[in-house]
Every structure is written in C-alpha cells, then in structure tokens.
Amino acid sequence: MKYLTFVIVALFFFCSVHGSARNNNWEPVKIHGQLQVKGRFLCNGQGDTIFLRGVSLGWHNLWPRFYNKKAVKWLKDDWKCSVIRAAMGAYEGVEDGYLVNPEFALNCVETVVRASIKENVYVIIDWHAHDFYPELAKQFFASMARKYGKNPHIIYEIFNEPTHEHSWERIKKYAEEVIAEIRKYDPDNLIIVGTPSWDQHVDIVANNPIVGYENIMYSLHFYAASHKEELRNRVAKALEKDLPLFVTECAGMEHTGDGFLDIPEWEKWTDFLEKNRISWVNWSISNKNETCSMILPRGSYEGGWDTEVIKPAGQKSRELIRFYNTVDKVYENLR
Ligand code: MG
Fold it and tell me: Number of structural domains, the chain?
C-alpha cells in the first residue's frame, strides 16, 4: 500500500513537472519531427502514432489580417495548437484570391508558413478551392515544395473541398499530377488529398486509393449540427479498409458555418476521432457575424484574446485542443 501511494505521488509530480515544462516550451515539431504515414496512421519521426490538433485560419482573402506572426504564436502558446492551417482562397470570382492577386495571397500564406517554422508548429498549406485549376496548383505547390519542403513543419493540402460534381476518378487524376509535381522537390512531407462531396465520401476513395506514393492522407470534413451518425458510419467503412484520414476542417455548427452550435454532437465526433486516432483541425479563426467565426470583431488580429472576445465555438475549440494536446502528451510519456 505504501509503495502504491509512493507511485501515485511520484506520478503526480512527474506529470506536473513535465506539464509546466511543456507549457513554457510547447514546440510540436521539435517533439515529433518529420511526419510519416504508416498504414492508416499519422506517425512522428520515431514511427510512433500521433495526433495533430489545431485550428484553421479563415480564407486569406476574407480575413488576411489574421495571417501574422503574433496570431500564429498565440495559437501555439495559448491554444496549444500543434498545427495551424493557412486557407488560401483559390477560385474564380473571389476578390483578392490567388487567381487574381497571387502576390497578396503568397504574402499572407508565406507569412504564416515562416512564423510556423519559427514557432515549431506544423502548418497546412491549403489550396482552398471548390474547382480544378491543375496548372496553377502544380505551379504553386512546386514553388512551395522547392522553398519549404526541407522543413518538417510543412503539410500540403492540394484541394480543400471537391464538390458533389467532382468524381473521385477526376480528383484522383488531379491529385496524382499535383503530387508528382510536389515530389520532384520534396520527397517526404505529408500531402492531404480532398475527397468527393465536400470531403465526405471517403468510403468511395477507400475502394480506389492513390498508389505509388508515400505519406498521403485523405481529408474528411464535418459540421456536427448537420453531419452525424450517418457520416461516421461512412467513415467507419473507410477505416475498415485502412484509408489514412486527416480532418482538415470541422466544427460544431451547421454545414453553412452558421446556425445552431451542437456541442454534444461535436463532442461525440471528437471522441470518435480520438478513438480512431485521427488528427483534426477546427474551422476557423475569423470574425464574421456567423457561428463558426471564432473571434468577435472587437478582438485583436494578433492573438492575446481574453475569453470575452472569443465566441462560443472558439471557446469550445480552444478547450478541446488544449485538453487533448495536453492529455495526449502526458499519455505518451507514461507509456
Ligand atoms: Mg521534405
């Protein structure tokens, strides 16, 4: 009994000492290094299965002011994000999107990429489109891979959300072309491929995944007030076939990003992802008058957010990220 008490006390001290050290020095890329995919799991440089959890910035063309060094640092230090997503708007008819103003887009995205490298947090370079622009995408990702591919921090997301009009065959062909281009310059960093119907038909992809390349994952998106058990059942089918999934966008409200915030269903989803060891990123750091925009308009663009300027979806997101990233770390060190 005495021995047991000693073990519990020792464990408690180990956790708190380790916890405080980590809180002052949370540098996910230093801990995990070069990512790799083994079977359907995301693994670190040592080959251990890991999770990445964090947030996506809103479209660069709508909320460019959040694309700065201080916001990245705050999201890492205070929200305990291990990954941050830069969502580069790249489709027609979008003011200041990559298609009409590439210089501005690059400036926003590269500011976040460089800040993430400095802060040692993983960063997703997201081609935020709803249609195919293969030549532009190849050119863009080749340039990113050439410039940043040596850094373990970089994750490429080559097509955010294909729609119901895009067949998997067509998406796959596009993905193979873009992946081949990236691999000319970067042989190893993680590449995430979009899936049909706004990243929800992962079951179709599981029947015919891309072959011949390493470190490829597929994206799954959900908005918990709209997508529930039916989508989880579809995901379960893909998991049975060992499809490597990464949730690059998710949140608790309706699929429009607005409407009712369904916290119990969001928690159900998060439990499901945790149980299946799937990484997740919440949408989004922005300040529009809608449920998914996490920050109030009076909040700063550079982090430093007190609770009263973080909207309910943002508070829940921060709570989930901090909780799971911290618990996960403790588990890893006790295994
Ligand atoms: Mg590399």
Answer: 1
- Counting residues of the chain whose pLDDT is more than 70, the rounded percentage is 90
Distance, CA of 160 to chain centre: 11
pLDDT in tens, 164-220: 999 999 999 999 999 999 999 999 999 999 999 999 999 999 999 999 999 999 999
Contact 94, 61 (CB under 8 A): yes
CATH number of the domain at 126, please. 3.20.20.80
Residue 221 sits at φ, ψ, to 5 deg, of: -120, 145
Look up residue 28 and give its amino acid. Answer: P
CA distance 281 to 259: 20
24 belongs to a structural domain: no
Q: How far apart are CA 123 and CA 54, in angstroms?
A: 10
Count of beta carbons in the 10 Å neighbourhood of residue 289: 9
CA 114/CA 110 separation, integer angstroms: 6
What is the domain range of residue 123?
Answer: 29-334
CA distances from 317 to 39, 95, 267 (A): 28, 29, 10
- Of 239, 251, 250, the C-alpha closest to 199 is 250
- End-to-end Cα spacing for the chain: 23
User: How far is ligand 1, taken at its centre, from the CA of residue 213, in Å?
Assistant: 14
The answer as to whether 82 is a domain residue is: yes
What digits encode the pLDDT tens for the residues 100-126? 999 999 999 999 999 999 999 999 999
How far apart are the CA of 151 and the centre of ligand 1, in A?
A: 6
Active-site annotation, residues: 161, 249
Contact 179, 158 (CB under 8 A): yes
Q: How far is the CA of 331 from the centre of ligand 1 (A)?
A: 28
| 54-96 residue pLDDT tens | 999 999 999 999 999 999 999 999 999 999 999 999 988 889 9
Domain contains 13: no
Distance 153 CA to ligand 1 centre (A): 9
